Amino acid sequence: MTAYPEFATNRPAPAGTGVSGETVADAIGVLLHGHADKLKEPPPLDIATAYFNLGGFGLLAEALDRVGPVRLLLGSEPSDFDVRATITPRSVREAHKGDPRVADAVQQHAQALAEDRDLVGFGREADTASEHLISWLRRGDVRVRRLTRGFLHGKAFILRDAGPAALAGSSNLTYAGLARNAELNLGVYQPSTVERVHEWFEEQWDAADDFDLAALYEARRVPHDPWHVFLRMLHALYGDGVETELLTANELGLADFQVDGVWRAERILEKRRGVIVADEVGLGKTFIAGELIRKAAIERRQKVLVVCPATLRDATWVGFLKAHTVPADVVSYEELVRDLPRAGEQGVRVQRLDQYAMVVVDEAHNLRNAVTLRGEAMRELLGGAVPKDLLLLTATPVNNSLRDLQTLVGYINPSDTAFADAGVRSVKDYFDVAMALDPDELSGQHLFELLDAIAVRRTRRFIKTQYPHATVNGKQIVFPQARVLRVDYDLEGVLPGFFDDFAHALGADRDEIGVSRGLDPDVLTMARYVPSRFQGEGEEQYQVQNAGLLQSTLLKRFESSAVAFTSTLRAMIASHDSFLAALDDGWVLRGDALRAWAASDTDDVDDVVRGLDDEARAQSEPATSYDAVALRAAVSSDRDLLARLADRTDAVDAADDPKIDALVEELAAIAAAAREEGLSVEQVRDRRKVLVFTYFADTAEHVFACLNARIKSDERLADYRGRIVQATGRDKKERQKAIVGFAPKTAGAGTEDDLFDIAVATDVLAEGVNLQQAGHIINYDLPWNPMRLVQRHGRVDRIGSEHRHIHLRCFFPDAQLEALLELEARLQRKIAQANAAFGTSAVLPGAEEVDRVISETLDEIRRLRAEETGLFDDESGAAASSEEFQRRLANAMRTPSTRSAVLGLPRGAGSGIVRGAEPGVVFCVTVADDPRPRFRYVPLERDGSSGRYVPQRVDGAPLVVDRLLACLNRADPRAPGVEAVLPEDLHEGVLDVWPTVQQHVFDDWMRQTDPATVQPVIPKVMRGAAELVRRHGLALANAQDVLVDRLSQQVEVRIQRDVRAVLREFENDPESAVRELATLADLLRLQRPQPVVPLPEIELDDVRVLAWMAVVAE
């Protein structure tokens, strides 16, 4: 006969006694099995419990399968306040009627049931257990109710028939209640007592409401709605931010998306003191900045300085601020460099630096070279005792490599650990990893987390989809569609065979690194620019790079026009003559002007070459340390070759120029189409407006002169007679006249005369000017830097354009294109190989990146040749910034049903979508109570033997991608309504791969628990400076420790050089060195680095799935 339990608790086995432990679950199992064994029919069972979870069910599952019918009563327990003794004149039920504490407890109880469900875990074992529970609950004779109008404090398991019994006490039907907690339960078997317990249960049951516990667990079943699952991922990332009301003043008539941009920029400024506004060209960055300036200058009464290209100072900024009555000082980059030493003096535009609270930099990509005078001036401006907010405006923060962006980040905060709170523990390491992942990648997708912390950046596609009804001045915004058109011409149409000879002269068929060492009269040795090769100690690296960059520039000017090419050749010939004359006098000229030119954005290489000799005389050396005979022979050979090349190109007649012929044909077609399509005189005029861009001023002058002549004689171009203007950087007044006369409706006040329909310009018109009155751009030169084309395109594809289409024509020397591209790639790779041969980093700005970006650049050129518009109009649908994700989340969560569905998803919710050629799965993972979710993407493949889905492997290890943007884009269904697709074998693969992902996240977390691992590596020079202050900085008093901390951090190489210079200069005067280091720290804005705190240790089970998305291959 079975002995039924009279007492039940959870008690572990005493150590060393041989006595077994006991659990409440064991006692209940004995009770239920005992009754089931005695009866032909399963005995009915009533259960009262406050809480329930799958773990508790699992302990009793075998016994519960043998009993029934079953009534399961759930209810909330009273809080500590409610169990305290109180005197009340009413019954308990009446006392609780309408009591808000009951409502709160009931709501918390529902949340607790859902949380217990979510604690089930993820995997095949958890799925099996859940299905067992659901099957039991749906059995037909199992009913569940929940008490919602009072508290349920009692717990009991009650058997009514064939030997009534009850086990009542403190245990909930949870794993903890049945197996862990110190519970107290008593077995009752007297019929009268059991009957009283039964009556109590009936009273509670009648007061309770039916509750679908099975549905709560059925919500774990997949697939869920893909859109809801993706929104759940986004809510984990951005929920707090998007749910904040966007309250911001709007005094400048901004569009909705611009208001949102202001709000986000303000949040970043408050936290970082700096922000990059990197919206695509034409989206109104000036207006976003204008509102931020207005708030600073008018609401906070702060002084603001705007720094911009000279072309934008009066044409854009001065007029814009005046029109909106916003006070701010505006200077060009050149004025900043010139006036900074006299800041605050009478007649100087720049006031005392500490008076400025905000600095706005327009076209901030012009600061991408940190060692230029502009860069140094900007750092001096931002330094000092008074911290300044920094607003950087640029549509192209990355021009040549990701290092461009790293430089801009350094202006915001030079500390290597400044963004540790955003998951970027070391800025340097972060960029190094991004470059290693994809050195040719220029979009910044591998820097998503950092950009999310410091940048506002939206695309046209994003504005179109997320702000479809956006208006400016009451008029709905409509963006034109970009069309790329190829214009072919024959580069050798006038000089057959010249390109092959020129390519040979540049060493196209030689593998030598650096300059040529032979004396082939038809190959340039570049000896005039690398005289160090003729010294015993060998070449100087910067001279080799100078020569390589000059060769590359020669190639580009050759493709641009014979005039530009010949001009440079003549300048080089004159420079060679000066060099030979000095050599005959016993001196070797060693100019450094080319280094400065390479670091600048100017195209005036001819002026640099002409001035090289004057500047070089100050650096000349006696020829006695050189092999003067060999040096003279090499320079003379080059001079003669340059002269032969120049004589051939001098003979080119402008009337025979194939590029001019092709340009005339395009202009004639544009004019004819405008006459045919225009509905009014004004519309015809606007439709024929054309911007002709070239990299070089002398090419612009050549094109302008040739077109003027052709327009006079070609009746097809009659509409353009007297309506052509030239705009280069050589005449600022004429440039401003050209801007306003070409597009008075958008670049002027709207009252000026419309004077011009063709503007031939260099890239002085490619930044910041509003030329959307026009709808045509012709890129006269091969697009060596595609980012320049993006800037040019942005002049016409802007808010306010009335054109349905923007036409972008690109000139290509079709027959010679691949040879040109290959020659450029070869020249650039030789520069990179020369750097590697020296075993040091590049000494010219950007020179270390040339090989990294050349393949991407050439691929982009080929895409333009194929008339693809992706460079200007990304229609891929993939998001590139967090603003896009946040706005989509915010818009979706405004719908109550969507919000409820998203937040109601169970932990571990998943789905599947069809996307791309590669199957895989994206996991959104939480770690313990850390608020920041982690994302992992695992590409899958079929196992050859089993046919199951398994992770792809790299070097024998499973491939797990942790780049946030890559994960989000793979999981993104793009829009609601996408069908969930989840084949069973792929679902099985998801379950199989989870342990790999869990371990990957766990290992990554645990690496960051080691103090030695997370602490940044401090450069030796910075450690030395900090130690110097520690020993000799007593005079600083309380500031001593602060300065030690400011110096004890990883910083840019440029800052290390500055610190090293101070240590060397004051090597014998440590007190003065300390004072100089304090001054330098202020100038460089070195801040106390954020302490990098190791993460707390966790268990593997702390890594849990929040949501997942399987990707089915198309």
TrEMBL record:
Gene3D superfamilies cross-referenced by the UniProt entry: Endonuclease Chain A (3.30.870.10), P-loop containing nucleotide triphosphate hydrolases (3.40.50.300), Tandem AAA-ATPase domain (3.40.50.10810)
Helicase ATP-binding domain ranges (all copies): 266-415
KW 4Fe-4S (keyword) present: no
Domain Helicase C-terminal as annotated: residue spans: 680-844
InterPro entries tied to this protein: DNA/RNA_helicase_DEAH_CS, Helicase_ATP-bd, Helicase_C-like, P-loop_NTPase, PLD-like_dom, SNF2-like_sf, SNF2/RAD54-like_C, SNF2_N
Domain of life: Bacteria
Pfam name, any one: PLDc_2
Keywords: Coiled coil, Hydrolase
CDD domains, per database record: PLDc_N_Snf2_like (cd09178), SF2_C_SNF (cd18793)
Coiled-coil region(s): 817-867
Keyword Coiled coil: yes
SUPFAM superfamilies for this protein: P-loop containing nucleoside triphosphate hydrolases, Phospholipase D/nuclease
Entry GO MF terms: ATP binding; hydrolase activity
Name of the protein described by the UniProt record: Helicase
Record organism: Cellulomonas composti
